[in-house]
């Protein structure tokens, strides 16, 4: 049986006709950059999240970069405290605005930034704290805010967490001072290409973000500050408007899939399952395999047609562009053990059963390193 990690075509089964109509509408309008479609998506996304302001941009990486720029303006050459267990775009955005990442280790259960360690990493050079809602699980931003103090800006990396909520039911993207989302096709809200969004409750920040993303111009040919070109095009906005209506339904189905995996893999020797949490978006279902067997198990699964993946094999503080000698032992161990199983809202129960059975078989036969 073939089980892809994500099936973009399968995700469009229900939305295909509506997306076709939306694209036709944009093509007929002749307006492909900015305009009513993009404005409507920003309003609808903000309304869905409960955010006061939403600024669409060209990608999740751009969203992170632009969201951090005001902090870089206030603290040139400063530091951003963040997690080492995430995609490189998190740290790249920090470096692109002239700041340096300062890594703090993650919690062994949630794999998200530990508030107490983040507080230890903050200091006079801290420009912001950048927690990552890893795999769609909300960081406890309330505890983080309490630990680092009210004067430290918190920018959420919510690129994997559109539609996720914290234990109090608040949407990721409304928990900090600002947040960045990605609309890469495999994300909980995915476009048919790239796209991103910044949310904030601060009108002045929203105005600054929009200015940066539009070449520093409020009116054409009059630049007020250095910016760059980062725009969500109207075709992608139209697609996202259609898919936005099904975000909660997709999240509920992924939660069902996570529960099915948990039931089928419970008490398997040598396997640690991800902890569930209310409001989890389940962008990824990531198990942990100890004993140096992860890569052997991965090879077995792929040979059996299962597109499992390692996300992420190396913590950021051990990568050359972001090198930091301070250890983060929990993240380092996790990177040697993590394995992402296929999950998307259209994944059928037969494939879930197949993945679970093959994983059990692979673990039974894989030798301990």
From TrEMBL:
This is dTDP-4-amino-4,6-dideoxygalactose transaminase. GO terms for biological process: polysaccharide biosynthetic process. The active site is at 187 (proton acceptor). The modification N6-(pyridoxal phosphate)lysine is found at residue 187. GO terms for molecular function: pyridoxal phosphate binding; transaminase activity. Transmembrane segments: none annotated. Belongs to the DegT/DnrJ/EryC1 family. It comes from the Bacteria. It holds the Pfam family DegT_DnrJ_EryC1. It comes from Kitasatospora viridis. Keywords: Pyridoxal phosphate.
